[in-house]
Amino acid sequence: MGRTLTYPKRISNTANRYKHRATYDLGPIHSIINASQVLHVSFNPGPEDPFPAILPMIGQMGSYEFPSASIDEPLDCYLHGYVSSRIMKLACNSEGDGLPICVAASKVDGLILSLTPNSHSYNYRSAILHGYAKLVTDEEEKLWAMKLITNSVVTNRWDNSRVPPDRAEMRSTVILKVKIVDGSGKIRDGGVSDERKDYGNEEITNRIWTGVVPVWETFGEPIRSGDGTLGEVPEHITSFIATKNKQNRALAEAAVKVTLPQEEQH
């Protein structure tokens, strides 16, 4: 059996609450990041602004140096943005290792409906990465990252669109490469876990429904729009939708089937 690669535990990423749900394994953490349509990226905008900045961005884990690297190996996080955005300007002007940033992602897999509001919860998967961001200046790596991110939106979309981007598009688009320093994830799965004082009380258990409502992201029927005149929806889109809907439902339903001990609290 191969060894499992993990992120180092540091002050910034070590879980202090519900430690049994935490993971530092590269595979699960990278998978959560890659499964998220939107990543929330936070950074320090500078001394003139006291508030931390958070941006919704599109991104994907990958390795330009080792394109065949698997999800459980060391990877960089590539983020897509516009040349004039504040984070891109800060990254461009940063010295040393780059701009310190945090990348966060969350997926909800179920609503946990318990006997008491305090025991309600979610089945969820969440991940956080810390690292240093720099602009990708090598054109080949930039194109590679743009293809990686585009295909994360819809599988094989890059080759089914007008590519490569022209010179103006390349100038206006900026790719940040985040060298990851540490990361952690949290996963809650299973069913309802009530307070001991409640689950033995028939007056309460006889009148309150408890259970799990599975939650999964569903992609709908494509609706043609824009200047494209092709009428039939291409196979790369229909197969992507069918595959993702099946996968997302299976994940949500599988999460409920894990049995937790009654004593575990939310």
UniProtKB/TrEMBL annotation:
<dbReference type="Pfam" id="PF12900">
    <property type="entry name" value="Pyridox_ox_2"/>
</dbReference>
<protein>
    <recommendedName>
        <fullName>FMN-binding split barrel</fullName>
    </recommendedName>
</protein>
<dbReference type="InterPro" id="IPR024747">
    <property type="entry name" value="Pyridox_Oxase-rel"/>
</dbReference>
<dbReference type="InterPro" id="IPR012349">
    <property type="entry name" value="Split_barrel_FMN-bd"/>
</dbReference>
